[in-house]
Amino acid sequence: MNWLIDFFGDPANWSGPEGIPVRLLEHLEFAGLSLLLAMLIAIPLGLWIGHTGRGALLVVLSANAARALPTLGLLVLIVLFMGVGTIVPVLIPLVALAVPPILVNTYEGIRGVDPDLRDAAYGMGLRGGQVLGRVLVPVALPLILLGLRLAAIQVVATATVAAYVGLGGLGRYIIDGLATKNYPSTIGGAVLVALLALLVQFAFVLAQRVTVSPGVSGRQDIR
Amino acid sequence: MDEEPLVRWDWIGRNWPRIQPLLEDHIVMALVPVVIGLLVALPLGLAGVRWRRLYQPTVGVMNVIYSLPSLAVFIVLIPITGLATRTTVMIPLTFYALAVLIPAVVDGLTSVPDHVRQSAVAMGFTPLRRLLRVDLPIAVPVVLAGLRVATVSSISLVSVGALVGRGGLGYLFIDGWQRQFYTPIVVGIVLVVVLAGLADLMLVLAQRLLTPWARARGSA
Which residues form the ABC transmembrane type-1 domain (chain A) (predicted)? Predict the structure, then answer.
């Protein structure tokens, strides 16, 4: 515990370009941008595949294959290839990490909607797009949010690796601390990342409360 | 690095004596946690079904554990289990495996349809016999699906351990980065993905063998 006090109690760690607020913002930038890009790719694709039933095999295959990709290896390879000028090299592996959970859960969510419900919506005269937007998405929302949450947590946790290739973020405390045998910094950084991940988890629980219609959330505890 | 091919495949042959122990280390560090996880998750999952009230908070704790970044956990463990030891890598991976497997066991066991369970009771099955002959076989597909996720993620996550000195094939990433040399990195990625793919394939086959009824009905 003394290590934590050494790290968090040091005013030098709270200001300047190496300070916790700056590192935190960098971390959020990596994670937030990657998640946003992944959402832009995975949600429309998942909705389309779930709604039309076309390309389901693609989802199944890509999901487990992408889980196997080692982010650290992908990151060093891309940075070596493209150089460290921008943050693009960091975003590619993080997006690759975030797409599968979002894609799979969006697809499963849409496909798992009770067929009777879907047929009833068609029977009421709604068109394909309306059925998707007004019935399928609201009912699938808990699963879609679960996918986003899993992706967000993984991205926040993995963005630490960016520090290894010399970029910023909270990982700097961890990696630099390891290199210089400065344990208070390492542990402090690890604690910060863990806290951030928990905060993200909590934010998604709140988002779920707010956005999921009460009728749907009656059957909670979907995993 | 001009005119350098992206990957020099002859590098693999020349460096195989160096790669092979990394591969073996990787397999051990990835699979031991999953096996331990499964052995622990089965009884805990059974308890979770029996005592639902205890299970809900457990899932909460599991979610928290799952959200801890592996690198952070490796580092927190270093003072306790030592730098560059297998234990440092395997302890967090065991907990990640548990976080996936315990809910899988519980979901599998609770997916037994009520009328099936009632038929077993009506036929005079003892609770133990019902567990072994009815509940567990029906839970197999769900448990195996969880096992696939746990195994593939475990194989991929071991490589992060390279940052704390013991990451199996992950060492190739560090090596390639330090020497600014593509080949080891690409070879490392390919080997990790192939390893995960083979493990996944074996589990799919196991699923086919263990659930012949699902195939007969054409639902899997």
Answer: 24-204
CA of A127 vs chain B CAs: smallest distance (Å): 30
Both tokens assigned to A115:
């067929």
Structural contact between residues A37 and A148, judged by C-beta atoms closer than 8 angstroms: no
Q: Smallest CA–CA separation between B44 and chain A, in Å?
A: 18
The reply to whether B58 touches chain A by the CB within 8 Å rule is no
Backbone angles phi, psi at A218, to 5 degrees: -55, -40
ipTM of model over 0.95: no
In terms of Cα–Cα distance, which of A13, A16, A29 is closest to A173?
A13
Domain count, chain A: 1
State pTM to two decimals.
0.87
CA distance B118 to chain A (A): 24
Q: Is residue B150 a contact partner of residue B32, using CB atoms and an 8 Å limit?
A: no
CATH number, domain of A154, equals 1.10.3720.10
Q: How many domains does chain B have?
A: 1
Each residue's pLDDT, cut to its tens digit, for chain B (220 residues) gives 445 666 777 888 889 999 999 999 999 999 999 999 999 999 999 998 888 888 888 888 888 888 788 888 888 888 888 888 999 999 999 999 999 999 999 989 988 888 888 899 899 999 889 888 888 888 898 999 999 999 999 999 999 999 888 999 999 999 999 998 889 999 999 999 999 999 999 998 998 888 776 655 544 4
Task: Find the CATH number of the domain harbouring B172.
Answer: 1.10.3720.10
Q: Which of B2, B29, B67 to mutate to test the interface with A (most CBs of A within 10 A)?
A: B67
Q: Do B170 and A72 touch (CB under 8 A)?
A: yes
CB contacts < 8 A, A to B, total: 125
Residues 6+ apart with CB under 8 A from A37: A91, A95
- Scanning B134-173 for CB atoms below 8 A from A yields 148-149, 152-153, 155-156, 159-160, 162-164, 169-170, 172-173
Interface probe for A, chosen from B7, B26, B185 (most Cβ of A below 10 Å), is B185
